[in-house]
Amino acid sequence: MRLLGLGLTLLLLGCRPAPLPEAAPGRDLQWLDARSAQQALASNEISSEQLVQFYLARIAEHNQQGYQLHAITDINPDALAQAQQLDKERAAGRVRSALHGLPVLLKANIATADQLPTTAGALALQGHLTSQDAELVRQLREAGAVILAKTNLSEWANFRGENSASGWSALGGQTRNPHLLSHTPCGSSSGAGAAIAADFGLLAVGTETDGSIICPSAINGIVGIKPTRGAVSGEGIIPIASAQDIAGPMARRIYDAALLLEAMLTPAAREAIPASLTAAALQPANAGKVLLVRAYDEREPAVVSMLDNTAQALAAAGFEVVETAEWQLPSDLYQAEFSVLLYEYARDLQQWLTDYQVPEQVNTLQKLVAFNRAQGERALAFFGQEYLEQAAAIDLVAAEADYIAALAQSRALAEAALNQYLQQGFSAIILPSYGPAWPIDHVNGDQFNFGTSTAAAVAGYPSITLPGGYSGVLPLGISLVGLPWSEPELIRIAALLEQQLAAYRRPGFIPALPADNAQATPAQPEPTQPE
After folding, report:
1. Residue 527: is the preceding peptide bond cis (ω within 30°)?
2. Ranges of the chain with pLDDT below 50
3. Of 83, 310, 383, 452, which is most buried, counting CB atoms within 10 Å of its CB?
4. pLDDT tens by residue, 286-340
5. Contact criterion met (CB below 8 Å) for 175 and 168
6. Looking at the DSSP assignment, which residues form a beta bridge with residue 207?
7. Which of 164, 212, 427, 486 is catalytic?
8. What phi and psi, each to the nearest 5 degrees, are found at residue 501?
9. Residue 476: closest CA among 301, 285, 246, 289
């Protein structure tokens, strides 16, 4: 794991943690939600500086030591100074936005113009500092957020090679699930999911290509929102594929996620979504028609009771709930999706390496592949780099026609699967997000049981996951998918379910359970690993 080499970072990540800061009498900073934090900041019960100190101490206690979650790769050495400045602004009567003074974690593939390296967890980018913020980071700073730290991820956003174990990177090590430390946090926004679940922060920004906000949010028992395609700028994010890449919020509560998303929306998205997302989170829905997918009941017994409770909560609130046991995406969709991702990976990653001035020795895909081979196990521990190699070998001109056809096919198939319901009067499609977490396995890689992120990811439609139930000690998530720019309505439905299901639990940090291997479910043909 890379350290910044600064005294503060060494203290926070490698040495004995400092005592937790004192807040106002009676104010407990543990497991705070963003709305409570806003109110406490406004009433001067706490300061932004105290919040930052608390989370830094929490990270010091359990990131590399304690529970050894390995959810954080780098601490921002300027975080305390940022918080102090924002406190001064508040005292002077200047509050930039509802996000003013709140700490935010960023996935380590998001560029920042500071002392936080942007690495995607890869040894080849160790220590790489960028000279400009990603657009979403610029927006967050303008809104008054404190950039606290960067989170670990599945290396190269889980698109380096086959048989990877989610949450592992050469620079960050293996992120662990706070609910059951022997089990996966899922990828690739694994560090963000584990960090928020473990109370290393209030808010985090993850990124998704297919499942990498939804899966780690569901499996770590928190809320995640994958917005409509184009709702958040991708400028500055180390890419897989611009056709599907999107950044989104991860938090413990629906309101918190809505708050963070609202600050990151593009100008075009603000026009397409005129309603306040935070207001939607405070106004649970009370009517509508939804499709409840029961196709996975037999795969995981705990899903049955979770969906039964969901149906009851929605019906009691006045929803018409239509159930279906059929949910099967065509195999051609997965094949076309992979072709698109590989082509755009070759094109888009090369552009990022150039634009963000990566050192010459690793500034092309071919050089990255050669670097990893030369480094051997230091760079390629546990699994290979097949996807990097395939992308490096693509002739973009010769492959362009096939790529365009695959892009059109994948989107048409994904949209058709969703539109048959969403354009026929249904406010949302509700599905179990993913199966429960499986044991971390660095020999065989991830052992997925099922996942439902692909249709929304490929179509570019918004989706939300929130805590819905449990399989033993392992969280299960409920996903809501809607038409483009339907985030306010999805947030209202999610707020209702959050209120009625009351399924959120703080993690138990259980080291292991007897017969962990018996909980692993054999891998299925789909989904692909969340990217």
Report:
1. yes
2. 1-21, 516-528
3. 452
4. 999 999 999 999 999 999 999 999 999 999 999 999 999 999 999 999 999 999 9
5. yes
6. 247
7. 212
8. -80, -30
9. 301
Task: Please give the Cα distance from 314 to 325 (Å, whole number).
Answer: 18
What is the average pLDDT score of the chain?
A: 93
User: Assign residue 397 a region: left if phi > 0, alpha if psi is -120 to 50, beta otherwise?
Assistant: alpha
Q: Cβ distance 220 to 197 under 8 Å?
A: yes
* Residue 207 backbone phi and psi in degrees, to 5: -130, 150
* Annotated catalytic residue 166: no
486 included as an active-site residue: no
CA-based nearest residue to 1, from 122, 130, 141: 122
Phi, psi for 120 (deg, rounded to 5): 55, 20
Residue with the two structure tokens 């990540």:
13
| Triad 149, 154, 157: Cα angle to 5° | 90
* Three-class DSSP category at 277: helix
- pLDDT for 23 equals 52
Selecting among 48, 169, 188, 453, the annotated active-site residue is 188
In the beta sheet, which residues pair with residue 470? 475
Instruction: Read off the tokens for 161.
Output: 């090679």
What does the alpha-carbon distance between residue 180 and residue 3 come to, in Å, rounded to a whole number? 26
Q: Tell me what pLDDT residue 27 has.
A: 76
Q: What is the pairing mode between strands 173-174 and 288-293? A: unpaired
CB of 181 closer than 8 Å to CB of 215: no
Q: CB neighbours of 401 closer than 8 A, spacing ≥ 6?
A: none
Secondary structure (H, E, C), 390-409: HHHCCCHHHHHHHHHHHHHH
Res 251: pLDDT:
98
Residue 54 CB-density burial (10 A; 0-12 exposed, 13-18 middle, 19+ buried)? buried
Contacts of 267 (CB under 8 A, 6+ apart): none
Report the sign of the C-alpha dihedral through residues 168, 174, 180, 182, in that order.
positive
Please provide residue 124's backbone torsions phi and psi, each rounded to the nearest 5 degrees.
-65, -25
Q: What is the largest CA-CA distance in the chain?
A: 67
Tokens of 376: 């051997």
The single-letter DSSP state of residue 240 is S
Per the listing, tokens 């996903």 go with 479
Query: Residue 150 pairs with which residues in a beta bridge?
Result: 74, 106
- Specify the pLDDT at position 526: 39
Distance in angstroms (rounded) separating the CA atoms of residues 334 and 140: 34
Residue 188 is among the residues annotated as catalytic for this protein: yes
d(CA 124, CA 351): 16
Catalytic residue among 36, 48, 107, 233, which?
107
